[in-house]
Structure formats: structure tokens, C-alpha cells
Amino acid sequence: MAIGAYFTVFSTEKIVATLGLSKIIGGLFITAPMAALPEVFATWYVARSGQITSGVTSVIGDHAVTMTLAFIPLTIVGMTIDDFQLFWITLSFVAVMPALYAAFIWWGRNGFRLWQVLALPVVYALYLVLLVVWVQPFGTGG
User: Where is the Sodium/calcium exchanger membrane region domain (predicted)?
Assistant: First the structure.
């Protein structure tokens, strides 16, 4: 896993440098999806066997632990905030998504309704629109 992580980050840096994108954009849209692929496959495999709740719960738990124990302390210690607008929008998104998920679990005691399932990707799409249209971090190179 360490070797795969190294090559994922190294490749992202090369792609970002070649395209002239911001490093944070490369991290959000290249490194993060690549890091999530093993979990996506594991969830698909478990959900395919009919254990949907187990699949989703394990992914959420794994990512919560990973973000809390591994990435957030390192990010806080080693990162300077060059674009505060991008920082607070992303931090807000990171807070809103689990809050929505928790609210949907609380409201849908008998399972998720279609509007609840569709609301999460819609919120993610709004986040992407905010990044691309309002923040416009593309091409900053840094």
C-alpha cells in the first residue's frame, strides 16, 4: 500500500505540473479518487452479496478513522493556507456531508428514501460547482 500511495502521489504531482493545476485540485480530484478505489471495490463486493448496510458502514468507518487519525493532524501541522476561500468551502463540505448522512439515518429509520440517496450526490455536485465557478483555483500552480 505504501508503494501504491507513493506512486499515486508522485503521478498526481507530475499531472498537476504538466497541466498547470493547483496541487489541492490534484489532490481532490486525482489522488483522493485513486485512494478511494480499494474501498469502492470492497463496498461493491460486500453490497453485491446483499450486505448493503455492512458495505456502506465499513466504508464510512474506514474513511472517518483515516481522515481523523491520519490525514487531518498531518494537514494541520504541515499545511499553510494560501487560499482561505477554498479552505473554508472544502472544510464546510467535509462537515456537511456526514451531518446530512447522519440526519438521513435518523429520519429514515426504515431505510433511505430515493430523495435522500439523491441528495448526497447533489450536494457533492454543488460543492464542485462552487469550486469551479466561484473559487476558480485552476491554473494557480500552487
Answer: 2-132
CA atoms within 13 A on the CB side of 114: 0
Tally of domains within the chain: 2
Q: Which of these ranges, 28-37, 42-51, 70-79, has the smallest mean pLDDT?
A: 70-79
Residue 55 maps to a domain? yes
The residue segments making up the domain with residue 48 are 1-79
Unique residue bearing C-alpha cell 490525514: 71
71: its cell numbers: 490525514
Note whether residue 50 is domain-resident. yes
Which residues lie below 8 Å from residue 112, measured CB to CB, with a gap of 6+? 104
Task: Enter the pTM of the model.
Answer: 0.49
Residues 6+ apart with CB under 8 A from 16: 22, 23, 25, 26, 30
Percentage of residues in the chain having pLDDT higher than 70: 70
Closest CA to 90 of 77, 34, 82: 82
